[in-house]
Amino acid sequence: MRLRQIGLGVTLALSIAFQAHADDGQTAYDKGDYAGALAYWQPLADRGDAASQDGIGSLYALGKGVPQDYAQAIAWFAKAADQGLPKAQFHLGFAYLRGDGVTRDRNMALGWFRKAATQGYQPAQSMLDHMN
């Protein structure tokens, strides 16, 4: 039992540390330091951090600090969306709505927007309201 508590404590500490780094990436992004954001997010994204994966997807979608590459953006958004991150689900839905890196598909867009809205992500709910 004691070993399980230690393992839980280590897991919690690591998740807090990963979140702090992901937040550092967002801070860099917000300041226009896209290379800095990528440097923070890349190792976390490679280890499966959904927020960092979504951040990297945004960099590629907008061509911020990296060449614009919708295929890369979709790949990163999909990794985060499949983990249930509503912001990434919204980004993926938006890509399907516009046809950025994927075949334009209103039904796929609606599906991703619904997943995000179900989790209370307001931009997705607004998009659904606008589309209906």
UniProtKB/TrEMBL annotation:
<feature type="signal peptide">
    <location>
        <begin position="1"/>
        <end position="22"/>
    </location>
</feature>
<protein>
    <submittedName>
        <fullName>Tetratricopeptide repeat protein</fullName>
    </submittedName>
</protein>
<keyword id="KW-0732">Signal</keyword>
<dbReference type="Pfam" id="PF08238">
    <property type="entry name" value="Sel1"/>
</dbReference>
<dbReference type="InterPro" id="IPR052748">
    <property type="entry name" value="ISR_Activator"/>
</dbReference>
<dbReference type="InterPro" id="IPR011990">
    <property type="entry name" value="TPR-like_helical_dom_sf"/>
</dbReference>
<dbReference type="InterPro" id="IPR006597">
    <property type="entry name" value="Sel1-like"/>
</dbReference>
